[in-house]
Amino acid sequence: MPFTSNDSTTSSSPVLTRESLRPDCGNCFALCCTALGFSRSTDFAIDKPAGTPCQNLDSDFSCTIHDSLRPRGFRGCTVFDCFGAGQNVSQNLFHGISWKAEPETTKDMFGAFKVVRQLHEMLWYLTEATTRTFDPNTSNQANDLRTAIETAMDDPQQVLALDLGEMHTQVRSVLMGVSEEVRSSYLATGDDHLDAALVPGADLMGKEMISQSLCGADLRGAYLIATDLRGCDLSGADLLGADLRDARLEGADLSKALYLTQAQLNAAQGDARTLLPSDLESPPHWFNNR
Ligand code: SF4
Questions:
Q1: Which pTM was predicted?
Q2: Which residues lie with the beta carbon below 6 Å from any ligand 1 atom?
C-alpha cells in the first residue's frame, strides 16, 4: 500500500507520545522473544530462528532469566528496544488475544510486529523533531507524518501491506532538515583536526575523545564502538543510528543530543554523572552489570 502524509485521513493530531513509545512488556505477548531471530554471538548465548519462542520464555510470556540476562550471555536482550510496538500490536492490533490463544494469527502478528516496530521508531524521532525545530511549518510537517503513520496502523492487513520505503524517505527528509537547523545553532569549538573526523558514518571506533566539545557534530550513523566520550559535551550532536556499543559516556552531557534512543544508551557504558534527555534513563547495568 502506498504511503502519503497528504491523505485526507491525516487531518487529526497525533496521539502517541514519547512515553507511549516506551516498551511495556507486561502488555506484550513476548513478540521480541518470538518473532525475531538472533545468532549466537557476544550478545546472544544461543541461535534462535525468527518465529520461534526463545528457550528462556515462560508460559506467561515472561523471561525466566530476566534478572541475570547479561551474566547468562544475553546482553542483546537488555539492549533491544521495540519503541512500544509490542504492546501496540498485542493490545490494539490484535485486541489482547495472543498468538497462543489463537495460533492462526501467529504469522500476521509476528509480521505486523516487525513493521510496527519500524513505524514506532519513526514516530520516536518525529516526535523529537516537532519539539527541536525552530520552524512551525516543519513542526506541522512532522506532526502530519506522525498522524499518517498512526492512521496506517489501524489494522493488521493494512500494516502488512505498507510501503515502508516511501515512508522512510519522507521521514528521513524531515529528520535531516531539523538536524541541520539544530546543529547550525551550535558553534563547533573543537580543533580542526578533530572536526574533520566528525562526519556522518565516521569510523571513530576506540578513539579517545575525552572531554571534547562535540556540540552540533553530525555523527549520524557514526561508528562510536568503544569510543571514549567521557566528559564530552554532545549538545545538538546528531546521533541518529550511531553505534554506541561499549562507548564510554561517564560524565558526558547527552541531555540535548539529537535523535538519541534508549537502545543506544543500553548498549553503552555510563554512570550517574552522565546527563540524559528527560525521557530516557540510565540502564541498570551502568550501576550493577545486570
Ligand atoms: S533470553 Fe529472555 S528476554 Fe531474551 S529473548 Fe529469551 S525470553 Fe526474551
A1: 0.93
A2: 33, 54, 56-57, 63, 65, 74, 77
Question: Domain extents for the chain?
Answer: 8-32+80-182, 186-290
Q: Give the chain's mean pLDDT.
A: 92
pLDDT digits (tens, 9 = 90+) for 155-203: 999 999 999 999 999 999 999 999 999 999 986 555 555 577 889 999 9
Whether the pLDDT of residue 249 is over 50: the answer is yes
Q: Whose CA is nearest to atom 5 of ligand 1?
A: 33
| CA 57 – ligand 1 centroid, Å | 6
Domain 186-290 has CATH 3.10.20.580: no
- Residue in 68, 74, 82 to alter for ligand 1 test, most ligand atoms within 8 A of Cβ: 74
Residue 63: phi, psi to the nearest 5? -100, 130
User: Which positions ≥6 away from 182 have C-beta within 8 Å?
Assistant: 132, 133, 216, 236, 238, 258
- Residue 63 CA to ligand 1 center (angstroms) comes to 6
> Which amino acid is it at 65?
I
